Structure prediction request, 510 residues.
Amino acid sequence: MTDDGVIGEKRVGDKIRCDACPVMCYIAPGRTGACDRYANDNGRLLRVDPLVVIERKREQGGELVSFLGASVGDWDGSLVHPDDSFITAIGAGTTYPDYKPAPFIVSREVEGVDMITVVTEGIFSYCGVKVKIDTDRHIGAERALVRVDGEPVGHVTTGEYGSQMLSLGGVHHLTGGGKKEGRVTCDTLLALCNGKSVAMQVDEGAAITVQAGQAPIVNGVTERRMRVGCGSATVGMFASQWHGLVDEVVVVDDHITGVISEHQAGKVIGWQPTGIKIKGRRSTPGRYFRVADPGTGWGGTNLNDPLLILGDFDAKTAKPGQSLLMVSTTGEQFAYYELDEALRPVQKEMPARLLPSVARIEENCEPALCTVLFMGGAGGSLRAGVTENPVKLTRAVKQQLTHITLGGAPAYVWPGGGITVMADVTRLPENAFGYVPTPALVAPIEFTLRRDDYEALGGHMRHVMTLEEARAGASGPQNEHLLKGRVPAGHKPENPWPTERKHFAWRGPQ
Ligand code: SF4
Prediction:
């Protein structure tokens, strides 16, 4: 390698070859490669986005400190104590092929313990996002394809409590379909992970717009509230507040519709039978399944008229004038009825005495949001950038000797084989994700562990540099690219500090 960071035979004319991923772009002077992450800067390969350093005592944002033209060791004027800064992988670059040590292997002392953080922008061909959409509205059948620009990018998966769920991306959409499917899938994942909104269409389902941390938009309507609970739970929660104010309450829900006079919650406080008949499948007293088809109407059913779930009232029990409140699980829809002489419900103006209880349902609904979790597998090759014996890293992670963060944000590591991680994208700094056109997503990943443990698992000890050197723009011999500079990012208070003892099995009593 020449001292300007470029291996000589990797030039073709005035173009230089980037080998940070299998695409191996030849980049002309002043231009960037196919992913826009690397550029030819006067014959030198440059990672164009600055290295993001999280600083504990800083609000979000800050000035770029350029490494270009600076000598390592130059004081940059910043007064941040090393204990309060953490070098993320964002902007660090990727070393490829993967047996090369990761771009940064940084040492530091934390509370008297020598620690190492290995930092790399991992290329994830096996990755996707899990999306939680807080809405009762039916967006499509489970297993229905989700499309962006007409291309399948994932599917509707098992619904959760008050939320619809999508599973998007994954190796089959990235690599197993047509070229356009892979590209659109990669674009979709990148946008979602970087906090952008994406419009999607579910086959035989809804048009939805998803953006991490924002309200979902379903068929053009911005969702406001997440339901308080299923119909049965709502009956249970509010039974005593309705007692004495109305003869019957039905909480309409696509999954479990609740009927207060039959429900255990009503019975224990002396609610009397009303002769009501519900058309759904009775599960247990006062709890009914499948009262209608799923849809975007009342309680996630396809109904705009809740009376359609009622059969005839039993004349032996029901009485003319008997009152009935029907309400949805978010309190957004409600209607009040009284039975006429023929025991038919007739809608009347909502009495003032019942309005507080409906308002209480609404009050108990949390704001509806979209949650986007990045999920990816740190493959054998990525692990080789950390250690010469990748399985030892996997074991060290499982033994809580190695702590994983993504851009400094906490990651959940799945039990079982491999290193499969999940992270809430809103907890990473902005624009933390990139892509390469293989296609695959580029995600920052950091491995933090004790120096002794790193040595024991076969770490690349010759490539370790100090935190101060890394902050000053030093680049290890494994890096064939230069860094543009670094920018500080404020520490998000909801994220634990990445080097805290509590992450490690050796922490001792807390
Ligand atoms: S796609 Fe990006 S990372 Fe891959 S070789 Fe081209 S410039 Fe380098």
Q: What stands out?
A: The CA atoms of residues 240 and 269 lie 7 Å apart.
